[in-house]
Amino acid sequence: xxxxxxxxxxxxxxxxxxxxxxxxxxxxxxxxxPTDIKxxxxxxxxxxxxxxxxxxxxxxxxxxxxxxxPCPFLQVDNSCGVYExxxxxCARFPYTDSDVFVDKSGLSLKNSTFCPAAFKxxxxxxxxxxx
Length: 131
Hints:
There is one protein chain. By secondary structure, this protein is mostly helical. It has 2 domains: 1-28 and 94-131, no CATH class; 31-92, no CATH class. The protein contains 8 helices and 2 strands. A hairpin with a 5-residue loop joins strand 1 (56-58) and strand 2 (64-66). The longest helix has 15 residues, at 116-130.
């Protein structure tokens, strides 16, 4: 099953444009690792501490997440204002091309409730199992 994921991921994203949706950016926050904070704050010309103070808070898992929803970097056209340096969590979302999709099935199922691409990959996996 894991070996099928990259191909199914490509198939799903050939049919789905994230800019039509952006539900992930509107309703959820990625975690911001120290390397993400350093990279993004440099990109937007802020000191790391100022970036944290303005945009981030610590959640119940002790991770940095955005203070507001939608994400403060979400643009009116659903594009990302820091796309070139976006958090690793965003770059990998919805994890449909890696073993994370299977290993963290609960997270994948949750993601499929709002992410059309994650839902599509689940549909394609289901079709392959039924054959």
